[in-house]
Amino acid sequence: MEQDKQIPSKPDQDLPPFVKTWKQFYRLLIGWLIFLIIAFYIFTVYFQ
Amino acid sequence: MSVIDWSVLILTLVVIVVYGIYKSRGTQNIQGYLLGNQSLPWYHVCLSVMATQASAITFLSAPGLAYSSGMSFVQFYLGLPLAMIVLCITFVPIFHRLKVYTAYEYLEQRFDLKTRALTAFLFLIQRGLSTGITIYAPSIILSTILDINTTYTTLFIGSLVIFYTVYGGTKAVSYTQMLQMSIIFCGLFAAGIMVVHLLPGDIGFGRAISIAGKMGRTNAIDLKFDLDNPYTVWTGLIGGFFLQLSYFGTDQSQVGRYLSGASVSQSRLGLLMNGLVKIPMQFLILLIGVLVFTFYQYNRPPIFFNSFELNKLENSKYGPELNKIKADFNQAFEDKQVVVNQMNAALDQDDQVAISRQRDALKLADDKEKAIKLQVTDLMEKNDKQANTKDNNYIFLSFVTQYLPKGLVGLLIAIIFLASMGSTASALNSLASTTVIDIYKRLIKKDASDSQYLRASRLATVFWGVVCIIMALFASKIGNLLEAVNILGSYIYGTILGVFLVAFYLRHVNGRAVFYAALLAELAVIVIGRMELVAYLWLNVIGCLLVVLFSIVFQTMMRAKSKHITTSVKQ
């Protein structure tokens, strides 16, 4: 069971899920951050 | 606590410890003990870095902060996703390629031994001190429930963590953290639902947030640029970025977690997922604090949430005076409830004029309540100069034990234990790694066998466990524990990050220049911090930039001097 979950060490050849390159994943994360800031700002203004 | 709660608490703790020990059995070499044989998948890495950062302090202090001053603390984490990206591009591939055990090992390869020793030493000081606070936070829970001194509860928690960390090393830490985080998510979700359920029938989730918002508790974003305010968007994005980058990039308690990833990709994915999840998670924890705040607008809160200190005052010669203040407090609460109901009616009718008027009235009522509470803390100080007059850390705890149903109380208290155990275990593991790899193996005994290093690692874990317990016993005099840990980190992280950034990006700077630059920068940070010239998060930026600047200046000076000597010799 324990062995099943372990992945043998290998060089950096995996691609990230959902997107084609790591660069796209980084952009996705920046987009998510911008979305959160806007959403929190709306939350602040709406409820105050 | 009821028998059911005790059963849930004990069962959860036993299951976690046994699971960690079972999963880490067979660890027989230093690589397995300190890096888990670099075999863990991304979701292990992600949950492990989250559990390391989210200590019990997160679950005790954060709802308390939201209750007393609102949700602005969420901005502290805004720099985290950006820091994760920089880590994935720069730090992770380098550390994996060089196959280092600790981050500081890299600095000797890039600079020299003294720079490695300096940064390792700064880390040991910072992590050793802050882990004491991490252990202390949950120990106050048991102390409140059992009404016994925090000394015994601190000893119990510290010993439990030392036990499984010494036995299983990194694997035990990582496996227990994965289970801990799963239980934590479930428990917090249940707590959020229960708070809403306990509100009056006509107050739904949205209305509860609205009422708290009218009293200034939904201030999640502040766009003002104010160097003195620790929680604004800019402080979070800039100061928070530097703090998170230095924490995840140079603090061995985190580096050790993602170095256990099976490959660069698995480590990267774990960190990036942390970047996606961390801010919403923190937001939800603060939101629970806001809901608890609304709950206490309809249910009279205790005048002071730390029942131990309150009982002490009640039984002192100031007891009669306290009773008078309590009567004022009760009256103020009754008055405020009228205004809260009027606000609720105004919100029902969407009457903007009335809402605005009630908002002002609520602010006055809130200020009055705070002023009365101040009288209590003044009295506490009069009675006992050593009294703990901050009750932020007790707010959520007090609510959980008084109002949540049997079973859930035990689970939520278990969560606070688990969170503390997770981050403490990581810290002990990293303190042991740094002590053995950067000090013992490098400076004291270079050619010992693998089993000797393994034994030394276990002994180092016990040693640091004992040191942290001793530090925890001194932590009771610190106000908000969460801030205390972050302030302490801000004094040191910036300098260490500066050294790493120079190592990565300024290839022409040598070890001598960066070493003296780091010493001078640390001195400057301490002076600026002590003089309180800026909010503490900015110390990370200042420390980092000063190291970079001084390194360039020293390197230029050394080069000029060397040229001058060469020219003189030739002449």
Automatic annotation (TrEMBL), chain A:
Bilayer-spanning residue ranges: 25-47
Keyword vocabulary terms for this entry: Membrane, Transmembrane, Transmembrane helix
Protein name: Uncharacterized protein
TrEMBL record, chain B:
Cell division found in the keyword field: no
UniProt family annotation: Belongs to the sodium:solute symporter (SSF) (TC 2.A.21) family.
Species of the source: Pedobacter metabolipauper
Keywords: Cell membrane, Ion transport, Membrane, Sodium, Sodium transport, Transmembrane, Transmembrane helix, Transport
Statement: the UniProt record of this protein carries the keyword Transmembrane helix: yes
InterPro entries: Na/Glc_symporter_sf, Na/solute_symporter, Sodium:Solute_Symporter_SSF
Entry GO CC: plasma membrane
GO BP: sodium ion transport
Record-linked CDD domains: SLC5sbd_NIS-like_u2
A Pfam match: SSF
Location in the cell: Cell membrane
PANTHER family (alphabetical): INTEGRAL MEMBRANE TRANSPORT PROTEIN, SODIUM-COUPLED MONOCARBOXYLATE TRANSPORTER
Name recorded for this polypeptide: SSS family transporter
GO MF annotation terms: symporter activity
Topology term for the membrane: Multi-pass membrane protein
Regions that span the bilayer: 6-22, 42-62, 74-96, 117-137, 149-167, 179-199, 231-250, 271-296, 408-432, 453-475, 487-506, 513-529, 535-554
